[in-house]
Amino acid sequence: MATLNEIDSQTKAYSAARGELSDAVGLLQEAIQSMTRKHLPVIKRRVQAAKDAEAALRATIEGNPDLFVKPRTLTLHGIKVGFRKAVGKLDWEDDGQVVKLIKRYFGDQADVLIVTKEKPAKEALEQLAAADLKKLGITVEETGDVVVIKDTASDVDKLVKALLKEDEEATA
Fold first, then answer.
1. Is 120 exposed, middle or buried (0-12, 13-18, 19+ CB in 10 A)?
2. Of the residues 6, 30, 49, 166, which has the maximum number of CB atoms within 10 A of its CB?
3. What total number of domains does the chain contain?
């Protein structure tokens, strides 16, 4: 059986270990912040240059849709460019009315098309045909062609967003 002195001694050792861990994590965070401050100005300039290049590319693609009839997209230099159908945005005025109509017309799918709190499930409704959506009083908006510019091999955007967000929070 342990004594209070043994528990006190082990608690002291645990507290010291936690303190050392906290110090090590603090040093790591300081190093990360220092590197971020050092490299962020270059990253910001390059983000702006990439945005400018994307805007110019987007304008050229939008001005030349005839180049993307078939195929509608091309992959050039690791970047997918061209046109695709927009996903579309579902919109309705009254959740209760749409729920009632889903139950009437799609009763067997109601558990999938309606979220538990009696609100239409957008993700499931997006799978229905436009004619079926019309029956439910749902309009589909923004379904025309939209420009595609997508890097097919990079997660750099996520890292850049995280760095920029971290910098904005630090300066706020």
1. buried
2. 166
3. 2
CA 56 to chain centre: 24
- Is residue 154's pLDDT more than 70? no
pLDDT tens per residue across span 18-72: 889 888 989 999 999 999 999 999 999 999 999 999 999 999 999 999 999 999 9
Q: Which two tokens stand for residue 133?
A: 């959506």
Whether residues 56 and 75 fall in one domain: yes
Distance CA 86, CA 16 (A): 57
Do 120 and 154 sit in the same domain of this protein? no
Residue that the structure tokens 């904005």 belong to: 168
Structure tokens at 37: 């401050």
Residue 76 and residue 153 in one domain: yes
Q: Is the Cβ–Cβ distance between 149 and 57 less than 8 Å?
A: yes
Number of H helices, E strands in the chain: 6, 7
Mean pLDDT (the chain, rounded): 87
Q: Is 105 helix (H, G, I), strand (E, B) or coil?
A: helix
User: Is 73 in the same domain as 129?
Assistant: no
Range of the domain at 164: 4-85+146-171
Indicate whether 153 pLDDT > 70: no
